[in-house]
Design a protein that fits this description.
With about 70 residues, this protein is an alpha+beta fold. The protein contains 3 helices and 3 strands. It has one domain: Metal Transport, Frataxin, Chain A (2-Layer Sandwich). The protein is about 40% helix and about 20% strand. Strands 1-2-3 form a 3-stranded antiparallel beta sheet.
Amino acid sequence: MPKLPGISRATAVRVFTKLGFHIAHEGKHTIMSNGRVRLTIPRHNPINAFTMADIAKDAGLTPEQFRELM
C-alpha cells in the first residue's frame, strides 16, 4: 500500500512547482518538466494513491518528502 493519499491535480502541480518544475503542456494530462525530468500528471481528481506515489518517485522524492511539501 502506498504511503501517499490520493490528492487533487492542483495540489500535485503546486508541489512540483515548488521543486522547480514548470507546466510544459496541458491536455488530457498535465506535463511538467524541470529540464531533466518530465512528469505526466493525470487531470482527474483525486489522483489515485498508487499513481501519485509513482509520480513522486519519478521526481526523485520519497512519499514522506512529498507529504512534507504538501
